[in-house]
Amino acid sequence: MTDDAPAGAAGMTRTRTATGPADGPDPRGRARGARRAGRGAAPRRVRTGSRWTPYVLVAPFFVFFGAFGVFPLAATAWASLYRMELTAPDERQWVGVHNYARLADDTFFWNALANTVTIGILATVPQLLLALGVAHLLDVRLRGRGVFRVVALAPYATSVAAATLVFALFFGRDHGMANWALGLAGLDPVDWQNGPWASKFAVASIVIWRWTGYNALIYLAAMQTVPPELYEAASLDGASRWRQFLHVTLPGLRPAIAFTVLVSTIGATQLFGEPLLFGSGAGATGGADHQFQTLGLYLYEQGWVNLHLGRAAAIAWTMLLILVVVFGAVRVARALLARRESAREGLGHARSGRSGRDGRRR
Amino acid sequence: MGWRRRRTRGGAYGLALALLLGLGPAAGCAMDPAEPRPVSARDPVDGRGRPVTLTVGVFGTFGFQEAGLYDAYMRLHPDVAVRQTSLTRNDVYYPQLLTHLTAGSGLADVQAVEVGNIAEVLATQAERLDELGTAPGVDRRAFLPWKWAQGTAADGRTLALGTDIGPQAVCYRKDLFARAGLPTERDAVGRLWAGDWRKYLAAGLRYRERAPEGTVFTDSASGVLAAVTGSAALRYYDERGDLIVAENPAVRAAWDLAAAFARQGLTARLQQFTPGWDQAFANGTFATIACPAWMLGYIEDKAGPAGRGRWDVAPAPRPGSWGGSFLVVPSAGRRRAEAARLAAWLTAPAQQATLFARRGSFPSASAAYALPEVADARHPYFGDAPVGAIFARAALGVPRAPIGPKDALVSQTLADVGMLQVDQTGRAPDSAWHAAMQAIDNALDR
C-alpha cells in the first residue's frame, strides 16, 4: 500500500519523540508538534478544553469502526469455529478448526479459488494496461478531452446490476449481440454461459469495462504530476515518444500503479456482483458446472443459500488470509529482489566506478 | 404482469433490482416503497386509542394487494389497517425471515413462506410460530389434504395456512402443433400423453419429425424434470424425513426421461427464468412447456400480444404440483390474534377464488373449486381454455408426497447444476447426476 512512505515518517517521529516527553495520555503530548516546529522557542499552549476533548472528538470514528469494522470481523472469526446454521444460530456446536480444515478437500472451494484467480488475472491485467493507454491518450492535449474524461468515468458510475444485465444480454447464446457479431465475421457462436473459458472471459470483460476508466483517471492524475522538464530533458537526449513513456512516465507512475494493482487485486478477490448477476438470477452456483463461481459467490452460497453460517465465515476468513499471504509474499519477494540487486550493483560499482549506476538513472 | 416466481430462483431483473436497492449479500431490510397506507392520524385505533396496523410480509408479487384483498378486509374491519412489505426475491426474503424469526424482531404480523422452505420452517421454527389450525375462521376441510399436511408440524400443530398451489398442465402452441401434424384441440392433445410422461416424450419425437423450421418441442430439460418429479408420490424425502433423492427410483426415472428430451434434441436448451427464456417466448422457439397455474400469466406477459390465440392449455400427463405458498403468524408479533384472523381470512376459499380470478394464483382451498370464479374460469389468452376446471382436476389428483427441509435446494441443484449441464453442454446424464449429487451433499453438509 502506501506503507513505504509513512513507515519512514513514522520511524522519524519515533526517534524524535524519544527525545520528547514520555508517551501516554500526557496533556503535554498535544504540544509535541508545536514544540517540534518551533524548537527552542517557549511552547505556546492554548487550553481549549479538558484533557478528554481530543478523545471525545476522535471517538465517533472509533465507535463506528468498532461497531462496523472490528466487531463483524471478530464475530465472523468466532462463528467460523462453530457449526452454525442460519435456521438456529443459538444451537451452535464447537468444531474448532474443522470449517477451515475441510476446505482442504472441498473441491468446490478449490474450484472457486481457481476461478477467482483466473478471472482476477483475466480482468486485472488488461484493465490496467488499457487504463494506462487511455490515461496516456487523455493526457495529450486533444480537443474536448473533458468529454472524454467523463466518458471514461461513466462505466464506473454505472451500477453493477445494470451493467451486468446488459452484458448478460450482450453475451446471450441465442439472441446476444456478441454471437451476432461473431456470426457476421463468419465464426461459430459461443455459449458464453457454459464455456469454462468463455464465461470467465465474459465476467472479466464486465470488470474491465467498469474499472478501466477509474484506473485511467488515477493514472492521469499521476501523469500530470510528472515534471515537464523530465520530458524536455529526455527529448533533448533524443528519446522517442515510446522511450519517454517507458523511462519517464512509467517510473513517475510507480506509486499509482502499485496502488491500482493493490486495489484491483483486492477487488478481484472479492468479486461477487458480476458473476452473481451474470448467472441471470439462477442462484449463486456460478454456472451449471460452477465454471464462474468465485470465492465471494461460494461464500454467499454457503451462508445465504445453504444457510451454513460457520462454513461461510471460515471461507470469509480464508479469503482474508489468502490476501494477507499474497501481499506478504510480494513484500518478501520485493525485499529479496532489492537485496540481490543492491548486491549486484555493489559488484558493478566496484568494477566500473559510478558509471553503471548513473547510466541506469538516465 | 409481475408474476410471482415460485421457485427460489427469480428473474434476473428482480435480482438486479434487489442489488440496486442494496439488498444484495447482506439481505438488508428495505421494503417495498409503495406502501398502501402509511400510518397516519386517520388510521384505525383500538379500544385504548392505539392504531391497529397489521403488516403482511411477502416476496415477489404475491397478489393480495393487487387483487384488492387488503382493501376488502379493511372495509370489513374498519378498526384494522393492513400494510404489506415485500421483497422481490424469495432467496433474499427467506434468509431474512429466518434471521428475524430467530432474533424475534423485525417481523411482520403475517409472513409468507414458499413451499420449498415450509418444511424447514416447521422443523426449525415451530416454537416461534402460532398455531393457526384452530384459529377462528379456519376450516380444515376446506383445504386440500396434502396442502394442509404440508403446513402441519411434527407435533401435529398446523402452523401454516396454504395460500395457493401450482397444479400442472401443459401449455402448447396450437399453430406449431398444426404445422407439425399433431392434434390441436385440447382434449385430443391431452389424450396424446394422458397418464404417462413417457408419452409426452413420444409426442415430442413425433413433433420433431415435422417440426416447423427453427422450433423445438419444449423449452428445457430442467422444466421437464421439475414437472415429472412434481407428480411423483415420493420425491426427495421419505415419510420418516430421510433424504432419499439419491436412491429414489422415481427421481432417477424422471432424471432419465428429462435427459432423454435433451439427448433427442427436443429442447430449446434454455434455463427457466433467465432473459434467454423470456426472449424465447417472444420469439416462439418452442411448442410446449409444462406449466403450473401461476405460469400462465408469465407466458402471457413474455409472449406478448403476438402470442394471443396461439397458446392453449391441455392437461398434463399426470397431476402434480410445482410451487405455492403458505402464511404463518410469528409468536413474536404484538397482534397475534388479529394476525391469525387476517391469515385465516386471506386463505379462506372465497378470497382464494378472488385471487385466482384476478391474479391467477390457484387456490389450495379445494372448497373454492366449486365457486364460479374457479369452476367457470376461462383464460382468453389461451384460447378461452377452461383453466379452472383443468387445474382443479389436476389439484385434486396431486399425490400427497412428503416434503423435507431442503426440498428447494435439492430441486434447484438437480435442475440448475445437473440437468442444465445435460441440456446445455451435452454432459452425459450419469456424470451430471453424479455432479448434482456431489453438489447436494456439499450443500447439505453431509
UniProtKB/TrEMBL annotation, chain B:
<feature type="signal peptide">
    <location>
        <begin position="1"/>
        <end position="30"/>
    </location>
</feature>
<keyword id="KW-0732">Signal</keyword>
<protein>
    <submittedName>
        <fullName>Sugar-binding protein</fullName>
    </submittedName>
</protein>
<dbReference type="InterPro" id="IPR006059">
    <property type="entry name" value="SBP"/>
</dbReference>
<dbReference type="InterPro" id="IPR050490">
    <property type="entry name" value="Bact_solute-bd_prot1"/>
</dbReference>
<dbReference type="Pfam" id="PF13416">
    <property type="entry name" value="SBP_bac_8"/>
</dbReference>
